Amino acid sequence: MKKLIIACATLAICMSGCQTNPADKAESFNYTVEQFADLQILRYRVPGFEELTLRQKQLVYYLTEAALHGRDILFDQNGKYNLRIRRTLEAIYTAYKGDRTSADFKALELYLKRVWFSNGIHHHYGSEKFVPGFTADFFRQAVLSLDASLLPLAEGQSAEQLLDLLSPVMFDATVMPKRVNQAAGEDLVLTSACNYYDGVTQQEAEDYYNALKDPKDTEPVSYGLNSRLVKKNGKVEEAVWKIDGLYGSAITNIVYWLKKADDVTETPEQRAVINKLIDFYLTGNLKTFDEYAILWLKDLNSRIDFVNGFTESYGDPLGMKGSWESLVNFKDVEATRRTELISANAQWFEDHSPVETRFKKETVKGVSAKVITAAILAGDLYPSTAIGINLPNSNWIRAHYGSKSVTIGNITDAYNKAAHGNGFEQEFVYSQAERDLIDRYGDLTGELHTDLHECLGHGSGKLLPGVDPDALKAYGSTIEEARADLFGLYYVADPKLVELQLLESAEAYKAEYYTYLMNGLMTQLVRIAPGNNVEEAHMRNRQLIARWVFEKGAADRVVELVKKEGKTYVVVNDYARLRTLFGELLAEIQRIKSTGDYEAARDLVERYAVKVDAPLHAEVLERYEKLHLSPYKGFVNPKYEALTNSKGEITDVQVTYTEGYAEQMLRYSKDYSDLPSVNN
Ligand code: ZN
Q: Structural domain boundaries of the chain?
């Protein structure tokens, strides 16, 4: 489960940039900040912040301070030279007196922006080291031109010595080439540049943790989560990240702000969560961390919520060490009402679905995932972020106590708004009529489809007695996603949604139908390299559904691919018939699932979901390329400012959205940089 990069139904929508939305007519908020390398920087709003009570605003403010103080931890976790490199680059960027318009200086600026984005010198997603576009000679000359007091020099170290240390790390492609190496057969610990292990081999690390684990322990702690494993004088031991241990100076500040937050909590449950987290930062005890995780997942009634700590382990080749991250948020009451309303009507939807009665659940309960508004992104969630989070990660805690699942509404909204007007719709949508529909209803019907998929689709239906839940084997996840998507597609067109006042128009669903087919038949192919097939389960599911209805409705021209000026477009001629076809496929897919019909699953998936139409694929890639859209996106945070009276008490907290990307990064490096440059 772990972190949802994006809730499953919306994955391709956002990642492929094909989400389409209502024009933002009433407001002039600028969601885009800048674009460089393969990155686009966006901005998000925090709607509803002004309506929070003063106490709630204070709580958010204190938690955002606690969030920002962890930034250096992640830089150091991602590589032992990252803080020194960042600080050296920042010194040049802010104080260099030479030609700031030269190609070398511009390339250094670009490199620094990428280092900020990745929290280190390796790509945030691919984990390969960046190649600087400036020369090592330029770097040397620029560093030596600065006042030495601006440089991150160790005691007694000269600028030349610092350069000798950093230059190979930055410029030699063979030094620390990957942050996380996953190549089978190599020593993954020694060949990964991440800073979770020092002087130990993979074998030594595995031996160390295997010796700690007790196979009979049914409630094991997350071994290794909060420490670096080091070899000192021939002995392997953990350097624990805690207030009097490694990263102590950053943790001291995190704890300081958590204690402030503790004074303005909303509920006793929330207070218990914060106090347990403080306890964990003080002791580094992983049992305490589990107690904290349980308290956290049970706290569902506080409006304000947060993540703060050593959380995800993707950055460790052995998958144990938690990278530091934080997210502060509050519940989006209106959007959560929508998911609750859908869940409250779960039985009605189950009873009226086009599925055979024997495959339906007699009693069904919807899941209402909370929709939240992010107030700050930090650590491993900044600037690149998830749009949904499902925690904690501990398996036994998930099994015994469940987990908390949230989707981040304002981040999704910012992706959507920024995508509008980027040229994608203009390029791929057939005509103005479809664009108008999408502009009016695309945003809302897209969200409703996701809600129906997540809250009802996966939980609907049942297996016949004796059917093995894994009967569909490798085809299981594609079939399962198709089942949930079809449930959503069938019901997004149902008059029930208008009756529940979730939609204002009986025509609105057409926006979702059009974009779904355009994505499934064509535009999701932008994520696939030429010559490759469709592999990922969500993408297979979408192509399966789109190709199936395309073929079944072909005789009556329900959906067509038409050519206009040499370009291919999707045209939907009969939306009502399209809904009927979705219903028929839902009934068949549910039958396959309920009876464990492996052959039918295999035939459907292999026939419709896997193979790519090569000429169409090439055409889509070529058209997409011309739009120059960045494959990766990240965010600048809003800026919070506490207003105080003469007694120093906070009277209000103001949020502003004007800070630029470099401006914010430099401010964070100045105000929230607690760690020394070398952390041993
Ligand atoms: Zn799903």
A: 7-18+320-635, 72-179+641-671
